[in-house]
Automatic annotation (TrEMBL):
<dbReference type="Pfam" id="PF00440">
    <property type="entry name" value="TetR_N"/>
</dbReference>
<dbReference type="GO" id="GO:0003700">
    <property type="term" value="F:DNA-binding transcription factor activity"/>
</dbReference>
<feature type="domain" description="HTH tetR-type">
    <location>
        <begin position="21"/>
        <end position="81"/>
    </location>
</feature>
<feature type="DNA-binding region" description="H-T-H motif">
    <location>
        <begin position="44"/>
        <end position="63"/>
    </location>
</feature>
<keyword id="KW-0238">DNA-binding</keyword>
<keyword id="KW-0804">Transcription</keyword>
<dbReference type="GO" id="GO:0000976">
    <property type="term" value="F:transcription cis-regulatory region binding"/>
</dbReference>
<dbReference type="InterPro" id="IPR011075">
    <property type="entry name" value="TetR_C"/>
</dbReference>
<dbReference type="InterPro" id="IPR023772">
    <property type="entry name" value="DNA-bd_HTH_TetR-type_CS"/>
</dbReference>
<dbReference type="InterPro" id="IPR009057">
    <property type="entry name" value="Homeodomain-like_sf"/>
</dbReference>
<dbReference type="Pfam" id="PF16859">
    <property type="entry name" value="TetR_C_11"/>
</dbReference>
<keyword id="KW-0805">Transcription regulation</keyword>
<dbReference type="InterPro" id="IPR001647">
    <property type="entry name" value="HTH_TetR"/>
</dbReference>
<protein>
    <submittedName>
        <fullName>TetR/AcrR family transcriptional regulator</fullName>
    </submittedName>
</protein>
<feature type="region of interest" description="Disordered">
    <location>
        <begin position="1"/>
        <end position="22"/>
    </location>
</feature>
<dbReference type="InterPro" id="IPR050109">
    <property type="entry name" value="HTH-type_TetR-like_transc_reg"/>
</dbReference>
<feature type="compositionally biased region" description="Basic and acidic residues">
    <location>
        <begin position="8"/>
        <end position="22"/>
    </location>
</feature>
Length: 204
């Protein structure tokens, strides 16, 4: 799984021209909205331009194909949301991270992701974008949390690679993807207090 990521530096587009960063937020919001509404199969470059209120040339200068457009969008997902909290305690850091994840799954990014999941297995480029984009972002952020907690003596050196560490977001993601039940901050707190922290304490 929210606020859209802020692009701080323009990257050369797949179409060869540099981007105008001032339009990125509007265009990405349009892409996510259309993915949620119509899915990857029905998404068109022209529809993105219309939804974003920009000229078609603005879209085609940035991306040559629909796949390029979606891959590029996926690659930047969650960069702002997974923001490496540093509250001074493992419990505080995990609570902030889980709350951030709740925001993602309940926002435009989450809706677009749900729509894309059935498409990803048939498009290796999309799968790679998910692995190298949002999945990598969250893994790195949780890795930083484990590093800080280890330095404070809250966990042992092997915890970050343990099965227990893999459970941190698993219940939230399962509830979101499979049950259709609400994923809110109260549920995240319950998971943290009754599942995650007891596992952490048992590992010390």
């Amino acid at each position: 799984m929210a606020a859209l990521p802020t692009v701080e530096e323009a990257r050369p587009s797949r179409g060869g021209r540099p981007r105008d960063p001032s339009r990125d937020g509007v265009i990405r919001a349009a892409i996510l909205q259309l993915l949620a509404d119509v899915g990857y199969g029905a998404l068109t470059m022209d529809a993105v331009a219309a939804e974003a209120g920009v000229g078609k040339a603005t879209i085609y200068r940035r991306w040559r194909t629909k796949q390029d457009l979606v891959v590029d969008t996926i690659s930047d997902l969650n960069a702002a949301e997974a923001n490496n909290p540093d509250t001074g305690s493992l419990e505080g850091d995990l609570r902030e991270m889980l709350h951030a994840l709740v925001g993602v799954v309940n926002g435009p990014t989450g809706a677009a992701t749900l729509s894309l999941l059935s498409t990803v297995p048939r498009h290796p480029a999309l799968a790679e974008a998910f692995r190298n984009g949002p999945l990598s972002v969250w893994q790195q952020s949780f890795g930083t949390i484990w590093e800080h907690a280890e330095a404070r003596g809250e966990i042992g050196p092997g915890f970050r690679t343990s099965v227990a560490a893999e459970t941190i977001s698993a219940l939230l993601v399962q509830r979101w993807l499979l049950t259709g039940r609400p994923v809110d901050e109260a549920y995240a707190d319950q998971v943290l207090d009754t599942v995650i922290m007891p596992l952490v304490r048992a590992s010390v």
